[in-house]
Amino acid sequence: MNEHRIKAIIKSISNINNDNFFDEICLSLSRAINADFVFIATINDTKTNATSLAVANKGCLVDNFTYPLKSTPCAEVVSESICTYSCNVQNLYPDDELLVNMKIDGYVGIPLKTSKGQISAILVALFEDAISDVHEVETLFLLFSGLIEKELHKCSYLKAIEFTNNIIENAHEAIVVCDKNQRITYINPSFTRMTGYDQADLQGKTPRTLSSGKQSKAFYQTMWLDLNTKGHWQGEIWNKRKDGHEYLEWLSITAVVDKNNELTHYTAFFTDITEQYIAKEKIKFHDSYDTLTRAANKKSLFTFIDRSIVQYTSLEKSNSPAALLVINIDLFKKFNSLYSHDLGDKVLIYVANRLKELVRDTDIVSRTTGDNFSIFINGLTNKKAAINVVNSINSAFMKPFIIDDINIKITLSIGIAFFKEDAQNAHGLFEKAEQAMFVAKDNGRNSYEFYSQELSDIANMEEAFKLSLESAIENDEFSNVYQPIVSLKNKSVNKFEVLARWKHNGDYISPAEFIPIAEKFGLISKIGNLVLNKACSELKRLNEMGFTDVVFNINRSIYEFSADGDHTSWLDTINSYHLAPKNVCFELTESVLAPENDRCIKLLNTLKIAGCPIALDDFGTGYSSLSYLRRFPIDTLKIDRSFISEMTKVEGDVVLVSAIISMAKALGISVVAEGVELKQEVDILVSLGCDDIQGYYFSKPIAAGSLSQYLVDFKYCE
Q1: Starting at the edge strand that comes first in sequence, how are the strands of the sheet with 263-272 ordered?
Q2: C-beta neighbour count of 630 within 10 angstroms
């Protein structure tokens, strides 16, 4: 595929204005493929007519048109297939007046789908002469159809929904109208008076802008269940004004439908009932909360648990795990005896506040006795998530408290019980969790125990695995092997991917087992540094033997990136072996492209400027985004083996691999195909212009010390 054409399209669409996107993409594509006509057309609901959104004719925009689909090649496209005729298309569709009038000989059409997978439009190229390279046109269309579909989706959501003219501007109640996608389209003056938001503040936003975050997920599920089934919901809800103050409102929402019973918008009326609520809450507080810590008391805890259980059961979510943690402050009496009861009270307040910071609004923290607290957590994704909660608590309490200029270190003993598995009501859960807490105290404090032994066993296994990893790091039980990366152009090899191996008690443990545990417990950087040092030592040995152009690809985990992106230590290691940075390529998985990982750009740029190549591993399985890819200093893409293994089985995968290779080359990025095992795969990759391949076809990973002989003996296998 012509790389300059892709570059031209990318450049032209980079600054496209939303108002002329379809015009510009048609013009860009028509220039890239030398088509006489390129147009995008929407399909009516009955799939009988097509109406163009933009038409490019020989570098110029022309008027849009509508035409019937019957007896046209576009009818085949609407039937969910790519339609291609390199020539003689008029002879095949003699009744298609459009083809005749335009004097068309070649045709390429591709369907464009909605987010639900339904065909809503088509992308078509028409040629007055026979098409010289049909494959190139199809590949370009496949490559850029996603961008066009995305713009079509966006346009469909931007259609304004008309609302009736009988909304009363001077109503005492606040009124808000949303479209069917919950976007605010209208508010009345009372709404502005109560919330502080005007129309300009909220236009196009959702009511979530006002959310206080106090309502649980289950609350909204119940509300939407009523709206979707009954068409109406009303009740109390906490929201937040523009100035940040929260208020309670009595809210009534109605789903409005048209004559065809299709949802068109939502209308909501509400009044501020905050003052009434405050008066009631003052009376209820002393009955429900601990006066010292302002955490819930034991009565409120039990009420909350039982209500949560009823709510989850009513929503048929009784299988969702929920857990009660009973927490005791280790050796609390010493604070009272060593200092004073006043300081002991402050300790309780600090502990309560720190626990509250760790839970969601849908959970509850309570003080149940003098130095005992409890946390009830509902809606856990699974039972293992309880371990993560406990780890979060222990991590938070590693930081000491400073109270009255006294540095106080607090540890906790925690017992855990699960709803339904261990008990089916609040009293039973508390009893079981408290028993587990006493076991934790008996085991030496500063620990946790499950009433159920199952998760305790899991936690113990992970802890044992972690200890084994720590021992392996300390005792240097890791080794490196090296898998060749073969150049298809030069039919030679000078690159190797470095792979870590761990031999434990005579058996090799798969990286798929130890890498996740290392990442979870913060050991991955130590392993990564071991691998880097061993690789640099081997590379230095090869250099001394005369193999000075060898490049090692070394994997680093996203969890090894610090918050500030400063990893000059990687370069320091390379320099300590007197190696050239250009001979050490760092490989990272596609997760580095995620928007939340922008901090990684600083590190990658540092490595790039120093001379280290950057490779992106497993491309195609995660954040395969052109916009993200262009922001990162990537030298090499490694196509995931899943695409390669399917090339000989699924015809479409060849097109995808071709598109990836063409896109990479257009951006000046080299391409490595991973997991190549078959001669047929090699032949396809050669024909597609792939730069390098890696896999068992040429070699399994090679042990350190054998690389020099491999380099001497290597012969390219045709």
Answers
A1: 184-187, 174-179, 263-272, 246-257, 232-240
A2: 11
Q: Could you state, in chain order, the average pLDDT of each consecutive group of 10 residues for the chain (718 residues)?
A: 64 65 88 91 92 92 93 88 90 90 92 87 93 87 84 71 50 88 91 92 90 90 92 93 92 92 92 86 80 91 89 62 91 77 89 92 90 90 83 88 86 91 88 88 84 67 87 92 94 94 88 86 90 95 94 88 64 94 88 59 85 86 58 85 83 83 89 92 92 93 92 85
Q: What is the DSSP string of 560-610?
A: G--TT---HHHHHHHHHTT--GGGEEEEEEGGGGSGGGTTHHHHHHHHHHH
CA distance 407 to 247: 39
Annotated domain spans of the chain? 3-157, 174-278, 289-451, 479-713
DSSP secondary structure string, 443-464?
Answer: TTSS-EEESSHHHHHHHHHHHH
DSSP H helices, 274-384, are 274-288, 298-314, 333-338, 341-358
Instruction: Output the pLDDT for position 561.
Output: 72
Q: Which pLDDT value is given to residue 160?
A: 40
Burial class (CB in 10 A: 0-12, 13-18, 19+), 404: exposed
| Pairs from 655-661 (Cβ < 8 Å, separation ≥ 24) | 655/138, 655/139, 655/142, 656/142, 656/620, 657/684, 657/685, 657/688, 657/690, 658/1, 658/135, 658/139, 658/688, 659/139, 659/142, 659/143, 660/619, 660/620, 661/688, 661/689, 661/690
Rounded CA separation 240/201 (Å) = 14
The CATH code of domain 289-451 reads 3.30.70.270
CATH number, domain 174-278: 3.30.450.20
Q: Do domains 174-278 and 479-713 have the same CATH topology?
A: no
Q: Using CA atoms, how far apart are residues 130 and 219, in angstroms rounded to an integer?
A: 62
Backbone CA torsion sign across 90, 95, 96, 98: positive
Contact 110, 139 (CB under 8 A): no
Looking at domain 3-157, its CATH architecture is 2-Layer Sandwich (3.30)
User: Does the domain formed by 479-713 have CATH 3.40.1010.10?
Assistant: no
Q: What is the pLDDT of residue 140?
A: 84
**This prediction's pTM:** 0.46
